[in-house]
Amino acid sequence: MTRKQKRLSLIAAGVGFVAAAVLLVLFAFGQAVAYFYVPGDLQAAHVAPGTRIRLGGLVANGSVERGSGMTVRFDVTDTRVTVPVRYTGILPDLFREGQGVVAEGVMSDQGTFLADTVLAKHDETYMPKDVADRLKAQGVSLGGKETIR
């Protein structure tokens, strides 16, 4: 093997190593990406069951039902469309009806959102920016109490 061939094989091995590393990083990002939807967007997008997403909106008044064990059912709404959510676990202390919430999980075949993470606002004046922006874009009045940070 000539000196030129050794150099080319070394460069080819380096390019192959970098390509494999990029593919592994892209695969890892693909697994971790969860698109954000409000209920109206989710209805229009027709997300396939099992696809991991984030659902944000307001907890519908009168919708929180505590089931057996730690299972809780509630509805997330953008005041136009409502999506039923089922969550098993401990809800954040600030989780309340009429407040902003972001849930992460998957859609079931029956149209229920199966959340594995629920995030509530962290103080009385905060609304998650994505939720506030989407609700305002749909013409929902937030009462001017929210502060977007």
Jot down its keywords.
3 helices; alpha+beta
Could you please describe the fold and organization of this structure?
With 149 residues, the chain is of the alpha+beta class. The chain is 31% helix and 29% strand. A five-stranded mixed beta barrel has the order 2-4-5-7-6. A hairpin with a 4-residue loop joins β4 and β5.
Compose a concise summary of this entry.
By secondary structure, the protein is an alpha+beta fold.
With strands numbered from the N-terminus, the spatial order across the biggest sheet is 2-4-5-7-6
Helix content: 25-40%
Number of strands: 7
Shape category = elongated
Low-confidence parts lasting 5 or more residues at pLDDT below 50?
none
Strand content: 25-35%
Radius of gyration from the alpha-carbon trace, in angstroms: 22 Å
Head-to-tail CA distance between termini = 62 Å
The main pleated sheet reads as: 5 strands, mixed, barrel
Write the element-wise H/E pattern from the N-terminal end onward: HEHEEEEEEH
Return the structural class: alpha+beta
Figure out the total of helices: 3
Q: Can you give the mean pLDDT? A: 85
Write the layout of secondary structure elements.
Elements (H helix, E strand, L loop, with lengths): L2 H30 L2 E3 L1 H7 L6 E8 L5 E2 L4 E7 L4 E7 L11 E8 L5 E8 L8 H9 L12
Parallel strand pairs: 1-2, 5-7
Antiparallel strand pairs: 2-4, 2-6, 3-4, 4-5, 6-7
